[in-house]
Amino acid sequence: MTLELVDVSMDYGLRGREKRALDGVNITVSPREFLCVVGASGSGKSTLLSLVAGLTTPTSGVITIDGRPITGPGPDRGLVFQTGSLYPWRTVERNVAFGLELLDLDAAERRRRVDWYLAETGLADVRRSLPRQLSGGQQQRAAIARALVCEPDVLLLDEPFGALDVQTKEDMQLLIRQIWRDTGTTVLMVTHDVEEAVFLGTRVVVLASDPGRVAADLRIPLAEDRTLATKRSPAFLELRASVEDLVRAQHRSGVAR
Q: Where would you find the membrane-spanning parts of this chain (predicted)?
């Protein structure tokens, strides 16, 4: 699976005028990559993810998966937002199973997938709980399991840990990397948190602001097996500082204009 954005631009109408949110974005995401996109406010991070999800259509350019243009939402892409957006009347198990109801699978395969992803996300013991009975971290685990149970080609993450406390956020970072390693799913994540992007990503794309465009595309040469101790290593601290400097420089450039 290769996800490709070619010369993608996006304009919005704002107070009777056109505002360009993204301008000529070119990004290729290879199979099994974990690509993190960072940038200051106004860099179009969430717009980019919305376009890849098929929730909106670019003003110009094309987005493809294995050469097939994206024309709307589809089961080849799983999406997780900042809040879990679980159905409050469904149990955890039934929330996770929701997407499978739209697929042509027999009952045994549905049960197998639900059981596996509940176990993978550490939710097997609360499978019959309602969302209101869960912690914030558990709700995000359920949202991730629901997105993955259909086994999409790409998992799209829109600031998924931004509303969590620091401890829970770090636990979720470790979890999503473990899931990525276990499933081999390609991940495209947008985040404002540079430390998170460097810790999670195999690549980090920095977007400039007003309009959003690719300012830097960096490989992250850290070991695949990362722990929280990785964040204290000299190599990590140097990479984080470099990306922070890039984001800050692009933000200042945007403000100056």
A: none
